Amino acid sequence: MIIIKNTQPQRHASVTMTTLRAFTCDDLFKFNNINLDPLTETYGIPFYLQYLAHWPEYFIVAEAPGGELMGYIMGKAEGLVPKEEWHGHVTALSVAPEFRRLGLAAKLMEMLEEISERKDAFFVDLFVRVSNQVAVNMYKQLGYSVYRTVIEYYSASNGEPDEDAYDMRKALSRDTEKKSIIPLPHPVRPEDIE
Amino acid sequence: MAARGHVHDPNDRRLRPIYDYLDNGNNKMAIQQADKLLKKHKDLHCAKVLKAIGLQRMGKQDEAFTLSQEVATLEPTDENSLQALTILYREMHRPELVIKLYEAAVRKVPTSEEYHSHLFMAYARVGEYKKMQQAGMALYKIVPKNPYYFWSVMSLVMQAISAQDEKLSQTMFLPLAERMVEKMVKEEKIDAEAEVQLYFMILERLGKYEEALDLLRGQLGEKLTSELQSRENKCMVLYRRLECWPECNALSFKLLLKNPDDWQFYLSYFESLFHLIDQGWTPPEGEHCVEGEVHSSVEQAISFVEERITAEDGKDSRPLRGPYLARLELIKRLRERGCPEEQQLGEPLELMSQFFVKFGSKPCCITDLKIFLDLLNPDQYVQFINRLMEAVPLGAPENNGVALPGDTRALQRHLCVSQITRLLGLHHMLDAAGKLSVIRELKSHYHNGLQFGDENMLWQCLGILEEGLSHSPSNAQFKLLLLLLFCQLGAFEPVVDLYSSLDAKHVQHDTIGYLLTRYAESLGQFAAASQSCNFSLRFFHSNQKDTSEYIIQAYKYGAFEKIPEFIAFRNRLNQSLHFAQVRTERMLLDLFLEADISSPLEDSVKSMSLCPEEDDISWDNMRDNRDLTVLTSWDPKYRQLTAEHRQRSLEEEALWLRVRSLTLRLVGALASISHPPSTHNSEKTTENGVVPKASTLQHLLSQLESTLSQASQFTEKHTQPYPFFGPPSTRLAQALASGSCQCQLSAFQLTTLLLELEIAGLDMPPCVSEKRQHWYPNALLLFLEILSKCKGDLLEVKDGQCKAQPSLLERLVFFVETTSVVLWVSGYCGGVLRPLKSSLQKKKKKKKETTVALPEVFTGFQEYTSSLQTLLSQSLDHIKGQEVSLTALKLADLSLEGQNSEEGTFTKAAMDKVQSSYLRSLQEVGELLRKRMDTMKALKI
C-alpha cells in the first residue's frame, strides 16, 4: 500500500478582498449569480435550513464591496470519534464566474479546515465529479488526495445514474500518521459510504 | 417511518407489516392489514391510527379524521399511537392537534421527559412562545439539563421579538430572560457556547452594549470558538455602535495586519480614523486602548496604506487587491472631506491604470474599478481608456481593421476595457453609425475569442446571443438575455426551454420566477402560464411546513441566533409579492380557461374556495424578493437600476396586483349572487342571501374604481421606462391603454344595476331602468374599442426588414380576458331576467293578452348579447387572418444586412422561433375565444 504524502508545498493561500461572514437565510435571495452555474446545485429550502440550524459556523459567504455575493462554502462535521472517522465535510463550494481566479475557494477551504481543526477532527473530505478536472486539480493543490472512487454517486435530474465521484481527503493535525487518507484499492458504491 | 421502541413488545411485531405497507405506498393493503388486526385486537389503538394514515393518503380526509379522533379522545400514552398520530396530524396540516395530544399525555404521565419534550416541539411548530417557556421549565424540573433551561430562556426572547408592544419586550420579557441567564452565570452553570450566544443576544437586544462587550472580552467569551473570528466581529459591531472609535480603529488595524484583504476592516479603519480626527483625539500615555495601537491622523493612515502596498509589492505569491483598492478608497474619502493630502497618494488615473496592469486579467477587475470611476474628471475619460488599452496585448490588425487579443488573459483585459468604456458612457455618446461600428468590432472580438437601437439591432442581438449560446451552452447570462429579448418581442414559446435550462429551483422560483410569470399569460400561452404559476406555488406551499421543522432543529442544536432568522425567513416567503401574484393569477387563469366552459362559474369559484369577502394579501408587509440584478449590466450610471426604480416597480406591481385581486374577488362575488339555473324559486334567496352579498360586491366595485384611478395617475406620472436590465414593467399600462380595465369595470357595474332590478322587481323607478338601457350601448362601444386596438399585423416584412408588433398580442389577450368577464356578467343577467320574463308571460297568459311587445328590459339585453356575438365572430376572423398571414410569411428570403452567413443563420433561426411562438399564442387565444363563443347559447332568455 502506498501512502500518498502531502508533498505539495503549502502555498500561503491568498486572500481576496472580501467580507467573509456567516451565511444567512437572506442570502438565499441573492445567490443567483453563483447558483445559475450548471455545476452548482440549488437545493430545497430544508437542506439549507438543516445546515444553518446544525452547523451554522460551517456555512460561510464571501461578499464583494458592492454587496454582490462572490461565493460560499457549506459544510458539516460528522463521523464517530472512536473509529477515527470524526471529520469535516465540504458539502458545497461555489464561486461566481466573475470572482474566480482570485483564490477565494482556497480561502474558504482554509476556513473550513480551521473550523474542523478546532473541533478536533481527523480529516476533511469532499466529493467531486471525476470529470471536473479544474476542481480536482484545485483540491490537489490545496493538499487533498483521492481516497476512493464512488461509483455513480451523481445522478441526473431524471434519477438515472450520471457520473462517478472522487472522495478526496486531507488529513488534519490530529491524524499524525495520516492514516485517514490512505487510498482504498477498490471503488465503492454510494450505499457503502456512511 | 418505522416503529421504534421496545423490541419485546408483541404489538410492534403485529404492527410491523402495516408500517411496511405504508412505507411502500401500499395504502390499500395497509388498511386491510389494520382491519384484520383490529378484528383480533380491538384495543390496539395504533392500528386504527395507521389505518387513518392510509385513508388520509388515499384522499379520504374525512374518514381519516373521524377515525383518528376515536383514538385521540382516549388520550393515548403509548409511544406507537402518539408517534402515528403526530405523523397523521402533520400530513393533515393540523399542528394544533399535536399539542392537544401531548398535553393529554404529559397530564397522564407527568414525569416523562420524552413527552414533555414532544410537547415543547409541538408548541414550537406553531410558535406558542409562552407555552414553550413553561414547557421548557417543566422539562428542566424533571431533568435538570442546561439545554431545557435555555429553551425556556429563548422562548422568552421569542416573546420579546414577537411582542407588538416594544415596551413589554424591553421591560418584561428581555429583563426576565437576562435574570434567568444571570442566575446560571452566578451558579457557574454555563457550559455551552450556545448559552453564551444567547446571553449575548439578550444583552444586545436590551441595548446593554457595555455589558455585552464585557461578556465578549471576559471568560465566558472564550467559549465562542466555533465561528471563526466571532469575538472580534462582534466586538467590532459594538465598538461602532458605542462609538468607541479608538477601540474600533485599533481592532481594525490589528485585523488588517493579519488579513490585509478584508475589505470591511478598511472601511471601519477609515471611518473610525476620521471620527477620531474630528474629535481631536490624542493618544494617552502608555497603551492607547484595550485593543492596542490607535491611528488618529491622516499621515498615519497614508503611511499605513502605503506600507500595506509595499508589503504586497515585495511578495512572491499572488498579490492581494485589498491594499491597492484601500489607497483609492482613502483618496475618495480625503477628497470628500476636501483634504489636500490626497495628492500624496497619487493621481487616481495613474493609480487605476496601475491597478489594471496588475489585475486587468481578473474578471472582477471591472467591479473593483467601478466604485472609483467617480474619481476621474469627465475630460480624463478618453485618456484613461487609452492608457488602459496600452496594457491590452493585441495582435496585428485583421483585414477588417480590428486587432484581436491572443489569449484568454488578453481577452479578459480587453473585455474589462470595453466594460469601462460602456460604464463611462462613451458608447452612448456615439451616433448610430458609431454604435454599429462598435458592435462590429465587438463581434469580431467575440468570434475571435469564442463574445459580444432600432429593430434591426434587436434581431441581430438575438442572432449573436443564439450563436453565443450554441458555443457556450451553459452560459446563464446568454440565456437570461435571450429570454428577456424574446419576451420583449412577445414570443414566449422559446422562453420555456431557456428558463428550464437554467434549472431554476426552489427559492429561485421566488427570486427569478417573475421572468416567466410576467409574460406567459400576457402573451397568450395559457398552458405555460399555468405551469409557471404551479412551479412557484408548490414551492411556497411547502415552505410553511419545512421552516417549522428547522425552527425545532435550531432549538435542539442550540442555534438560538437562527431561530428569529428562520421565522423572519418564513415571513419573508409568506409575504412575498410573487407569492401573492401567482396565487391570484393562478385562480384568475383557471377561471378564464374553465369557468362556464368545463363547469359553471359558481362551481369553479367554490372549488378554489375563493372567498370574495376576504383579502388574503398582506399589503402593508409585502416583500419584494425579486432578484432584479440577475442580469449583469455594464451600462453607465444613468442607465443603471436605482433604489427609486425598485421602489417604483414595487409600487406598480402592487397596484396591478390590487387590480387583479379585486377583479378576482368581484368574479367570486358575482358567482355568489348568481342563481344556479335549476333553482326555480329564486325569490327566497333574494330575501336571505343576496342583499349582504350585494354589499360585498358594491364595496369591491368602489375599491376597484378608486384603484383604477390611482393606477391611471401612476401611469401618467411615470412614463419613463425602467432600465433595460431592470424590472419588467407590469401589464398595468397596457391594460389601461387597451381599454380592458374600463370595460371590465363597466361590466361589473351592470351587475349592480341588475341587482336592483332583482330586488325591486319589474316595477322599479324609471331612472334606474334608464341607466341600464344606456349601459348596453356604452358597454358595447368599450368592448369594440379593445378589439379595434388589436387590429394590425403582429409580424410583417417591409422593405426587406422584419417588423414585430408584440403589443397587439398583449391586447388580444386583454380582449379575451375581458370577454370572459363580460360573458360571466351576462350569464348572471340572464339568470335574473329569465324568471322575470317567464312570470311576466304567465301573467299575460292569464290575462289572455297575446303578442304584446316585450318590455325593453328584455329586448335591450337580447340586442346586447346578439351584438356581442357579432363582435366575437369578428375577433375570431381577425385571429384566423393573422394565422394565415403569419404562416405565409417567408422569413428565409430576408437578406440580413451587416451579418455574414453564419450569423444570419442564427438570426433567422431566432425569427423562426418568434414566428412559431406567435402562431401558438394565436391558436391558444383563438381556441379560448371559440369556447367562450359557445357559452353564449346559455344566454338566451
Automatic annotation (TrEMBL), chain A:
MF (Gene Ontology): protein N-terminal-methionine acetyltransferase activity
Keyword Cytoplasm included in the entry's annotation: yes
Pfam families the record matches: Acetyltransf_1
Residue span(s) of domain N-acetyltransferase: 18-173
Highest taxon of the lineage: Eukaryota
InterPro entries: Acyl_CoA_acyltransferase, GNAT_dom, NatB_acetyltransferase_subunit
GO CC term, one of those recorded: NatB complex
Assigned EC number: 2.3.1.254
Record flagged with keyword Amino-acid biosynthesis: no
Catalytic activity: N-terminal L-methionyl-L-asparaginyl-[protein] + acetyl-CoA = N-terminal N(alpha)-acetyl-L-methionyl-L-asparaginyl-[protein] + CoA + H(+); N-terminal L-methionyl-L-glutaminyl-[protein] + acetyl-CoA = N-terminal N(alpha)-acetyl-L-methionyl-L-glutaminyl-[protein] + CoA + H(+); N-terminal L-methionyl-L-aspartyl-[protein] + acetyl-CoA = N-terminal N(alpha)-acetyl-L-methionyl-L-aspartyl-[protein] + CoA + H(+); N-terminal L-methionyl-L-glutamyl-[protein] + acetyl-CoA = N-terminal N(alpha)-acetyl-L-methionyl-L-glutamyl-[protein] + CoA + H(+)
Key words, A-Z: Acyltransferase, Cytoplasm, Nucleus, Transferase
Localization of this protein: Cytoplasm; Nucleus
Family from the record: Belongs to the acetyltransferase family. ARD1 subfamily.
Record's subunit section: Component of the N-terminal acetyltransferase B (NatB) complex which is composed of NAA20 and NAA25.
Stored PANTHER family: N-ALPHA-ACETYLTRANSFERASE 20
Function noted in UniProt: Catalytic subunit of the NatB complex which catalyzes acetylation of the N-terminal methionine residues of peptides beginning with Met-Asp, Met-Glu, Met-Asn and Met-Gln. Proteins with cell cycle functions are overrepresented in the pool of NatB substrates. Required for maintaining the structure and function of actomyosin fibers and for proper cellular migration.
Protein's recorded name: N-alpha-acetyltransferase 20
Species name: Denticeps clupeoides (denticle herring)
Gene that encodes the chain: NAA20
Automatic annotation (TrEMBL), chain B:
Pfam families registered for this protein in UniProt: NatB_MDM20
Keywords linked to the UniProt accession: Cytoplasm, Repeat, TPR repeat
Signal sequence, renumbered to the chain: none
SUPFAM superfamilies the record matches: TPR-like
InterPro entries: NAA25_NatB_aux_su, TPR-like_helical_dom_sf
GO cellular component: NatB complex
Quaternary state and interactors: Component of the N-terminal acetyltransferase B (NatB) complex which is composed of NAA20 and NAA25.
The protein's role, per its UniProt record: Non-catalytic subunit of the NatB complex which catalyzes acetylation of the N-terminal methionine residues of peptides beginning with Met-Asp, Met-Glu, Met-Asn and Met-Gln. May play a role in normal cell-cycle progression.
Homology family: Belongs to the MDM20/NAA25 family.
Name assigned to this protein: N-alpha-acetyltransferase 25, NatB auxiliary subunit
Organism: Denticeps clupeoides (denticle herring)
Organismal lineage: Eukaryota, Metazoa, Chordata, Craniata, Vertebrata
